[in-house]
Design goal:
Distance between the termini: 39 Å
Shape: globular
Order of helices and strands: EHEHHEHEHEHEHHHEEEEEEEHHHE
Radius of gyration: 20 Å
Structural class: alpha/beta
Number of strands: 14
CATH architecture of the largest domain: 2-Layer Sandwich
Number of helices: 12
Oligomer: single chain
Strand content: 15-25%
CATH class of the largest domain: Alpha Beta
């Protein structure tokens, strides 16, 4: 089959996530970056096109021009990857959908809940594929934990603890990657809660198979002068009665990318750390502790399908990202991709951000997590 042609909006010079999307999409040889509007500055967009080594005429000054020009080509783009700051997610996705182009978007779906609801209406009305890169759902052992929990390996889930500490915003937010994340006009309603808290939220629901129904939130802007939260603690209640704790912080000095989830059930528990992603720990009620390794022959079909190398050959962030793109490729070709996060995950995540920010500001006690339209 011919490679799927990828367009990109965002990902210009100095960007982190754009090159990650490109590497992930192309890892399996099923997709190729073909065109892009990489920056709001036309010169920088053309420079990015050179660095990505795409055909010079297919580096565009803006997204509208790209969509119009690509539509005229027999070899036009098959989908658009949105890798911009949050405030541009909806406008970019809206333009692509209007042009009949499927969308793969970086998370969160949008900058606000109202925008996410608008996007859900557009996606549903169009029938076009839409997906979100909640990266950590692509790790093989995360998918293995999900499958084992669903099969009853630890009985009824009772407790979920998920934490995501970082320290890179403990001081001044300088540089391209930091500046937009602390700017409400570009980041949206949430700071840390919207940048990494949604990863923790999605991971908790994805692995456990449960849905958050209530929360109690304490969000703070710790660094003086900062408008958006940079430290978050949220207590959770799930639809089966389980309790949970979510901690996300970007002012935890010394922490790097410490995403860590523990799920405890009636007869055991699972423990997985993003910084050691090739080992999943399963605790048993009789006191045994089992270490499940990436590439093990005993892995179930979901994890096995997401594994590229034999055991002992570590796979990590790019490969997990690539698993989401592989899922998206199947979706584009009309095949099922049940583990791929989509617009409903995006709306749930934006509702989580909005509810947590509002509840914390009001110093409210327990509040329901309500998903409009559900």
């Amino acid at each position: 089959m011919a490679k799927l042609r990828m367009g990109m909006v965002g990902g210009g010079p100095g960007a982190f996530i754009g090159p990650v999307h490109r590497m992930a999409a192309e890892l399996d040889g099923d997709m190729i970056l073909t065109a892009g509007a990489f920056s709001s500055d036309a010169t920088r967009s053309f420079q990015a096109g050179e660095r990505y080594r795409i055909e010079p005429s297919r580096a565009y000054a803006d997204l509208d021009t790209m969509l119009a020009q690509e539509a005229r080509r027999a070899d036009g783009i098959d989908f658009l990857s949105v890798v911009t700051p949050n405030h541009l997610h909806l406008p970019a996705a809206r333009a692509a959908i209007a042009a009949g182009i499927p969308v793969m978007s970086d998370k969160p779906a949008t900058a606000t809940l109202d925008e996410a609801l608008e996007l859900r209406r557009l996606v549903r009305a169009s029938g076009l594929p839409y997906a979100l890169t909640y990266t950590y759902s692509g790790y093989p052992l995360v998918r293995e934990a999900r499958a084992r929990i669903a099969a009853g390996a630890i009985g009824k889930v009772r407790k979920i603890v998920v934490e995501y500490p970082q320290g890179w915003l403990a001081g001044d937010a300088s540089g391209k990657q930091a500046e937009w994340r602390v700017d409400p006009a570009r980041s949206g309603l949430g700071g840390c809660i919207g940048d990494i808290g949604v990863h923790a939220f999605h991971l908790a629901e994805f692995v456990s198979g449960l849905s958050v129904t209530e929360l109690l939130a304490d969000l703070a802007a710790v660094v003086p002068g900062r408008e958006l939260d940079d430290d978050c603690t949220v207590l959770l209640r799930f639809d089966n009665g389980a309790r949970g704790v979510l901690m996300a912080s970007q002012i935890s000095v010394g922490e790097r990318n410490g995403l860590h989830i523990r799920i405890y059930g009636e007869s055991g528990g699972f423990d997985w750390r993003q910084e050691s992603p090739n080992a999943l720990i399963q605790h048993h009620a009789d006191g045994r502790t089992e270490i499940i390794q990436a590439g093990d022959a005993a892995l179930g079909p979901d994890a096995a399908a997401a594994t590229r190398t034999p055991g002992g050959h570590p796979e990590g962030y790019i490969e997990a990202f690539a698993n989401l793109y592989a899922d998206f490729a199947r979706l584009l070709r009309g095949e099922p991709a049940p583990l791929l996060p989509g617009i409903d995950d995006g709306v749930r995540s934006m509702a989580f951000i909005a509810t947590a920010v509002d509840a914390s500001a009001r110093q409210a006690s327990w509040v329901p997590l309500l998903i409009p339209g559900e």
